[in-house]
């Protein structure tokens, strides 16, 4: 038995000996911010400087409590010029004898000097975001410890590097921020592989090698590591160091953002029948083609890119990230129905590109150069390092040479020469290469550039987010224009996440450098802002035409398939009918609809077989899921209108009579324990009181963008009801106010009014209520996120309970959804005070609820966002304001951002705006509904 076991081991060893040697890696550092290794460290200036200690690698030293923080716009001469000295001792495996050994740095900021056992490994590397390596075979000792010494200078001695990387609109960090490892290769080895796998199955490859070999063998593996197609070999002519390979594979599954099918291709060098070195690459078969004055085609399909700009960033670790973070970022982008991402403004971690390959995102990879450029020798070296590391990722379909003027044109030819795939080259912010990529153009920009231009329109930055402005605000107008413009290839939003960094020198404060960093759709730790859901709906690849739930509705929805490669019969559709006034155990019915056969870019019909009693429910929810089973969006459709709720909720009759008295100044009315005081001259509500005391809701209605010319009030009994009403006069009192007090104590307010201007920002009625008194609200309407005039999508109809918070978008504590702001389609609202609560109900559609005035975050000097709010504290609006972006005022983001127009000044009562509200000031604690309804979720869960 023992002999057999030894023989078995020998066979394994013999079998292993004939297999090709792999490139081996030995990490000297950790692999990301979730796995680090401590090195000895000395910082020359700033916090914790002047002493030897230790630091995790990889990391940015500022986030570890060393040196000085500085944002790129900071022009202080001596700011951020510290150096970091690193030491680390390592051993070399004995089996690496007679092999080539490289030390590899995936990223180091900025100038990096490397010594092994006291000797320079090579010239100082300049440039922060690029993988570089040194051959240290002759410097290492196999039999004993080896000393690695690294000096990293945050500020480069090469001024062009500082211009390209440091004088930029982002945080500037220092340190070895990406992994460091040793790689071991046989003396004869593959040095570089370039692959171009086309959609027709043709695989072209270019292979460079060092040493002596007879041939190269190529194999392709698909799912479950099964070989796909035939193995093929190519002989190597003596003296040749570069091979060009070609092979035709039959019908491979293609790679796209919708179906990211990957293959593994393996290249093996063979000498005298022995496998010497083997390298594998993940690839995808896909073809990228730019057709002049037409568009960008992937696998023969014209694309619309729904993209975002993304920094390599995490608040607690700066530019040091991890594969876990890459996965989270890409999943969030996919959740927003994005299909593209631009690397801003430098190449990312390799694992981010791996995740884009595997999960499916088109990538624009970028050579750094924010507004300045690398000099040509430095840029040439760095561009080749970027290409060598990134070139085989199928997700990369564009290269970008710098950003916004940071284009060294002397480097352009290198992209064509170095890239076997000949991917298109972009100059972001320029008209270049047949692309118009100008940033932050107004919606109605330039006859010769956008709507009536001849270049492919693809802004690499548009709708510059800041605080709550931009992103979702304006995107619907922009996207409608982009979708319908044949020359539009879509565009990229700025940007993905708020750049808020943990200040170790300020007790862990999250710092966005004022208004420079809060530009994200999500917060620094991926907190979802309201714009997240707006983008998710606007960019849904299933477009659902608006439908009203009238008695004649037959359960059919018109759909448009905005996928590029997916038939809607590969998706899933689910529906739910729900009653919203019966609490958590609300009655509902749910089902699935057959997915219709609708090809990409076609329209068709989805049929839901609704039960016969569907109109007995309050709302219909329709969910579309992609081929991966994940939600694209859930649309909500109210069935019962506000008037129906009013009829159920408002109690008019009572056992007591309505009593009133008046003096020269006020009307005092009482009914069923409710005491109301109205100003006799203005008609405004002055006080509401019940047996518990005064409810501090008063001083209304005050017209916003209208004149409170209510006059000549009269009081009379109308049956059991008391009516206080003003008199209409076309010249002096054309706005009218009418109060009706019912025996139940309920109060009805009717206002008919005319706006005071042709163009107005908002219009509605204001009341006073002390913000310090509010505890929460519970309302029926769209939520849970607030809206703007130019950001109406992304909400859902339901009943929402919102506790008070004073959150400002993009600022600590990044608590969402915010409390203060506008909410659309209010049916009713219960205002829950610290002392007392009261209820407001409307029988009108499309009423906006305004809750107080959010903090106005510090805008730029141009004050473009203009997040304006009415006077007073609580408002009921017929029209609300829009919000701008960092670079555009609201009205330049499209029609939805423009002011309201009410042009009929005839002052006829039938032409007036109309607002009707019912108020319940009683002490009753019974809610208007029996529980808490949250965002509908077909998994059975509830999420706020």
TrEMBL record:
Catalysis performed (reactions): Hydrolysis of terminal non-reducing beta-D-galactose residues in beta-D-galactosides
GO biological process: lactose catabolic process
Domain Glycoside hydrolase family 2 catalytic: 288-414
Family designation: Belongs to the glycosyl hydrolase 2 family.
Record text on subunit structure and interactions: Monomer.
InterPro entries: B-gal_small/dom_5, Bact_Beta-galactosidase, Beta-gal/glucu_dom_sf, Gal_mutarotase_sf_dom, Galactose-bd-like_sf, GH, GH-type_carb-bd, Glyco_hydro_2
Species assigned in the record: Pedobacter psychrodurus
Full protein name: beta-galactosidase
Signal sequence annotation: 1-20
UniProt GO MF annotations: beta-galactosidase activity; carbohydrate binding
Lineage: Bacteria, Pseudomonadati, Bacteroidota, Sphingobacteriia, Sphingobacteriales
């Amino acid at each position: 038995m023992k002999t057999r076991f030894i023989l078995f081991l020998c066979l394994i060893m013999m079998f292993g000996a004939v297999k090709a040697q792999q490139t081996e890696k030995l990490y000297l550092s950790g692999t990301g911010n979730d796995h680090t290794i401590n090195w000895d460290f000395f910082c020359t200036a700033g916090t914790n400087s002047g002493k030897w200690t230790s630091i995790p690698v990889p990391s940015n030293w500022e986030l570890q409590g060393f040196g000085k923080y500085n944002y790129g716009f900071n022009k202080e001469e001596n700011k951020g010029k510290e150096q970091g000295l690193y030491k680390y001792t390592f051993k070399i495996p004995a089996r690496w004898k007679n092999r080539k050994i490289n030390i590899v740095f995936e990223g180091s900021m900025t100038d990096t000097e490397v010594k092994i056992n006291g000797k320079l490994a090579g010239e100082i590397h300049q440039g922060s975001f690029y993988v570089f390596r040194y051959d240290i075979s002759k410097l290492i000792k196999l039999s004993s410890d080896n000393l690695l010494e690294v000096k990293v200078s945050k500020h480069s001695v090469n001024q062009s590097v500082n211009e390209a990387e440091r004088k930029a609109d982002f945080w500037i960090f220092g340190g070895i921020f990406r992994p460091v490892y040793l790689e071991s290769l046989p003396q004869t080895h593959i040095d570089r592989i370039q692959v171009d796998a086309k959609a027709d199955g043709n695989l072209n490859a270019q292979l460079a090698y060092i040493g002596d070999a007879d041939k190269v063998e190529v194999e392709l593996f698909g799912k479950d590591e099964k070989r796909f197609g035939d193995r093929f070999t190519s002989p190597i002519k003596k003296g040749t160091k570069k091979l060009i390979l070609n092979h035709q594979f039959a019908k491979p599954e293609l790679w796209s953002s919708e179906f990211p099918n990957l293959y593994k291709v393996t290249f093996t060098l063979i000498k005298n029948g022995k496998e010497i070195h083997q390298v594998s690459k993940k690839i995808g078969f896909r073809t990228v083609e730019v057709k002049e004055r037409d568009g960008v085609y992937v696998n023969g399909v014209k694309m619309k890119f729904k993209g975002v700009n993304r920094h390599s960033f995490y608040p607690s670790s700066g530019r040091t990230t991890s594969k876990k973070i890459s996965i989270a970022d890409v999943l969030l982008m996919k959740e927003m129905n994005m299909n593209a991402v631009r690397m801003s403004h430098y190449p990312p971690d390799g694992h981010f590109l791996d995740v884009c390959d595997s999960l499916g995102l088109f990538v624009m990879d970028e050579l750094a150069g924010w507004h300045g450029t690398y000099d040509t020798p430095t840029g040439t070296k760095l561009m080749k390092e970027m290409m060598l590391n990134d070139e085989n990722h199928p997700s990369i379909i564009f290269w970008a040479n710098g950003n916004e003027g940071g284009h060294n044109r002397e480097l352009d030819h290198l992209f064509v020469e170095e890239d076997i795939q000949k991917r298109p080259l972009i100059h972001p912010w320029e008209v270049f290469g047949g692309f118009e990529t100008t940033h932050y153009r107004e919606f109605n920009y330039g006859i010769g550039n956008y709507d009536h231009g001849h270049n492919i329109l693809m802004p690499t930055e548009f709708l510059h987010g800041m605080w709550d402005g931009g992103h979702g605000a304006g995107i619907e107008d922009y996207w409608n224009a982009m979708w319908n413009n044949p020359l539009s290839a879509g565009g990229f939003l700025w940007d993905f996440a708020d750049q808020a960094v943990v200040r170790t020198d300020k007790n862990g404060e999250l710092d966005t450098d004022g208004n420079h960093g809060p530009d994200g759709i999500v917060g620094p730790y991926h907190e979802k802002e309201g714009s997240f859901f707006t983008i998710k709906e606007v960019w849904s690849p299933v477009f659902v035409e608006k439908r009203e739930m009238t008695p004649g509705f037959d359960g059919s929805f018109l759909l448009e398939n905005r996928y590029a490669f997916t038939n809607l019969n590969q998706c899933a559709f689910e529906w739910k009918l729900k009653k919203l006034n019966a609490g958590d155990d609300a009655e509902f019915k749910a089902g699935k609809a057959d997915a219709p056969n609708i090809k990409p870019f076609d329209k068709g019909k989805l049929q839901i077989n609704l039960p016969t009693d569907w109109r007995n429910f309050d709302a219909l929810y329709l969910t579309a899921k992609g081929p991966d089973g994940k939600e694209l969006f859930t649309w909500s459709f109210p069935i019962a209108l506000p008037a129906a709720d009013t009829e159920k909720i408002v109690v008019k009759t009572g056992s007591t009579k309505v009593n009133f008295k008046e003096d020269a100044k006020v009307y005092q009315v009482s009914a069923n324990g409710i005491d109301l005081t109205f100003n006799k001259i203005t008609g405004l509500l002055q006080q509401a009181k019940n047996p518990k005391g005064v409810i501090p809701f008063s001083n209304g209605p005050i017209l916003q963008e209208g004149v409170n010319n209510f006059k000549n009030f009269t009081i009379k009994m109308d049956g059991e009801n008391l009516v206080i009403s003003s008199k209409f006069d076309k010249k002096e009192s054309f706005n009218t106010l009418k109060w009706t007090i019912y025996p139940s104590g309920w109060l009805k307010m009717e206002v008919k009014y005319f706006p005071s201007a042709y163009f107005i920002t908002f219009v509605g009625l204001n009341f006073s209520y002390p913000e310090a008194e509010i505890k929460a609200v519970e309302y029926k309407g769209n939520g849970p996120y607030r809206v703007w005039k130019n950001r109406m999508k992304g909400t859902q109809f339901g009943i929402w309970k919102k506790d008070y918070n004073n959150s400002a978008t993009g600022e600590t504590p990044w608590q969402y959804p915010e409390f203060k702001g506008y909410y659309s389609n209010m049916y009713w609202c219960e205002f829950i005070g610290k002392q007392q609560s009261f209820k407001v109900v409307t029988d009108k559609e499309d009423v906006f609820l305004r809750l107080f005035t959010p903090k106005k975050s510090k805008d730029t000097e141009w004050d473009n966002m203009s997040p304006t709010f009415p006077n007073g504290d609580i408002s009921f609006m017929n029209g609300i304001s829009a919000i701008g972006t960092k670079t555009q005022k609201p009205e330049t983001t499209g029609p939805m951002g423009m002011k309201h127009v009410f042009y009929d000044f005839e002052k006829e009562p039938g032409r007036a705006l109309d607002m009707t509200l019912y108020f319940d000031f009683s002490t009753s604690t019974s809610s208007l509904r029996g529980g808490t309804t949250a965002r509908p979720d077909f998994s059975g869960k509830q999420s706020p």
